[in-house]
Amino acid sequence: MVSMKAVVKIVLLAAALSLSACSSWVYRIDIPQGNFLEQKDVDKLRIAMTKEQVVFVLGNPVAANPFDHDTWHYFYALKGGRGNNFEKRLVVEFKDDRLVNISGDFDKHPDFDKPLDI
Fold first, then answer.
1. Which domains, and CATH codes, for the chain?
2. Contact at 8 Å (CB) between 62 and 35?
3. Going by C-beta distance under 8 Å and a sequence separation of 6 or more, which residues neighbour residue 48?
C-alpha cells in the first residue's frame, strides 16, 4: 500500500505544478508614458507653424531642453504587461519661433514644406 506521506507529497506536487501553470493567467497592466502621437497628427504639421499651433496639434512636449528652447522632444513608451514594449520619438525644431523641421520615427507629410498661409 501507498503510505499517507506519499499521497500527501503527490497531492502537493500536483498542486504546485498546476499553480505554476496559472502564472500566465495573471493580468499585467500596460504602462504608457509620454505623449501618444499618431502619424495622422504628425501629418498636420507644416513648415512655418508657430509654437502655439504645434502645441495645439501635438500637445506639450514631454521633454523641454532648458538650454535650447527651439528643440522639442516628444517621446512615447509603452511597457506592455506581456513584454511587448513600444517606443516612438519625434523631434520638432524651430527657428525664430517657427517650425523648420521634424525628425524621428514618423514620416514627414508630402505637404510639410508648404506653409498653411499659402
1. 29-104 (3.30.1450)
2. yes
3. 98, 99, 115, 116, 117
Q: Which residues pair with 101 in a beta bridge?
A: 93
Question: How far is 44 from 5, CA to CA, in rounded Å?
Answer: 72
Task: With beta carbons less than 8 A apart as the criterion, state whether 62 and 74 touch.
Answer: yes
d(CA 115, CA 28): 45
2 pLDDT exceeds 70? no
Q: Provide the β-strand partners of residue 75.
A: 89
Per DSSP, the three-state class of 1 is coil
**What is the C-alpha separation between 113 and 85, in angstroms, rounded?**
33
Residues 82, 52: Cα–Cα separation, whole Å:
38
Confidence of residue 94 (pLDDT cuts 50, 70, 90): very high
Q: Per residue in 35-80, pLDDT tens?
A: 899 999 999 999 999 999 999 999 999 877 788 889 999 999 988 8
